[in-house]
Amino acid sequence: MTTLICDCNRTMPLATDALGQALGENLHLHSTLCRREAGAFQQAIRGGDDVVVACTQEQRLFGELGAATEGAVAPVKFVNIRETGGWSRDAAQAMPKLAALLAAAHLPDPDPVPTVTYKSAGRLLIVGPLDRAEQAGALLDDVLNVTLFAQGQGERGGAQGRRFPVLSGRLDAVNGWLGAFEVQWTQHNPIDLDLCTRCNACLASCPEGAIGLDYQIDAGLCRSHRDCVAACTVAGAIDFDRPPQTGAETFDLVLNLGAQPLFTRHAPPQGYFTWDGVDPSVLLRLRDMVGEFEKPKFFDYKQKLCAHSRNATVGCDACVQICSAEAISSDIRNQQVKVNPNLCVGCGACTTVCPTGAMSYSYPRITDQGARLRTLLSTYAQAGGRDAIVLLHSQDRGQAMIERLGRAAGLGLAHGVPANVIPLALWHTASLGLDLWLSAVAYGASQIAVMTTGEEAPQYLDGLEAQMETAQALLNGLGYEGRHLHLLRVSEAAEPADLDRSLQALAAGKPAAPAARARHALAPEKRSTLDLALDHLIAHAPAPLPQAIALPAGAPGAGAPLGGLEVDSARCTLCMSCVSACPSSALMDNPQAPQLRFLEKNCVQCGLCVTTCPEQAITLTPRLLLTPQRKEAVVVNETQPFHCVRCNKPFGTLKGVETMIGRLAGHAMFQGAALERLKMCGDCRVIELYSSENETKITQL
Prior knowledge:
This protein has 701 residues and is an alpha/beta fold. 29% of the residues lie in helices and 21% in strands.
């Protein structure tokens, strides 16, 4: 591998030997790699090894140089070491972090993931006041096929010339996504815009001024003089007796200019835009929305692991509740959830709160993300770094805030990113949760901080806080003192000084960490990854360990993903309804005896057993059991089998049959011999019915 480092005109105190030793390379320090020393870049990219350039500012320039360099075949990656630490006040102590960032940049790219395709022919619907809609349409109709949906005339009213098709009425529904928006409306106004010639005779004749330049009648002002009808006799566009008519049409794009959003969800679908009439970037983006587009399919769903529903009973619906794009819906009939990939925006919050791993994030996959964390933290430690803090942030607004802070530090206006804070950019901050955070601590991180910037949906913040509360309870329960998990809420309008203070406070903390760093790779399955992290943290935890760690309780399916349960033996009849409902095989029967067994390691606390139990005999207990019993199937309730009173064959349970007899004893159909038959097995019950002289046979009827 080849790494090119530059101290940016000697504004960063880079220790070449220390960085080279950590990376296993002989590094040459440049000061103007993007200018006079650009030949070194051109020479490097003629080789076959991957090239990592420690500069993101001149990424475009290096790309142009690469295209103009004969024989340039090497893949090139870019990493920012300047704003992330090289310009900080403690930059001289930041070599372990910079080495970690450079090492992570050398990791191979993740494997490709499936994609979701959108096709847009440029059919645009503009919704809003007619004057503003016509203004926007005039700026777009050279590349898009524009239709207007007028909601009032606006301040100036519509233009006299009919330039675009105009719809009006009550907008009933707008659903869909880029290339497939379905719009439904009801036209209840007396003026038919298709027949209207815009001669304005109706406006001139209306004594109340109830007709505007959107050519619609305001029912609140109209006093039914019908002068407008007389004025429109030839065109026949006005009919007060016309019944409301519904319409529906499909569009590729929707631009909303009105005050009310057409989609109330936090993350609207692709292809939906809003415009305030000022920012031209919205219209520029719309002009490019013709053709075929692709995005990654961010999720992978495995129904067999899902704890959403069993037997028409809902258990875990955490993914449905947290999705800000309303891309996930419940499908109780098929015992699963459905994800619409066209609506999914890739936040990954559903995978974070999923207790079973049925919903997993694939961009990048958990194994790829684990490799990045392990490389960052192992390189940092090998280079002499201590008390590593992993700062998770979004690759858009979060990255911009990091860069703003770095520039302020370069000007001496801020401290900058501390030497032990390692920034890690994510597609979305909600995409990592409990399993990855604990794995990072096992790899050697002393703290994990998630920086939000106000772009996250409120339920995402609630979900992250709940996950952090569980993770912190686990770490403190194992004896790791201090606060390891932090949610940094930094608004988009915040000044660099605000983030600077938060990071300085983090850097000052020294929570306890494992004595040895984990070396295992992360498993593709969420539960396996969580178990690996817990096993390492337990093995290196300060002794003595408690028997169990109590975890924060939440609603079933939305609380801690670990725990046990308690069975009220006085209520439980061992009907085994809970066994058939358990999606993770945590509850099991015993084919040889009437026993209910429980394997705590498999329990995901979905609550299906609680809601399924007809006797209400089960209670969830969120916890981490630290005894060997957690990985063993233990008997939580048992009883004696009930023997048939006729053939003595065991069937059912003693308590179950006694409960049934007790409940039916007062029923008119279960008296005398009929009640006695309830104590018989299925075979004997049939024999008794056919051999009894007191029973009427169907052949006798």
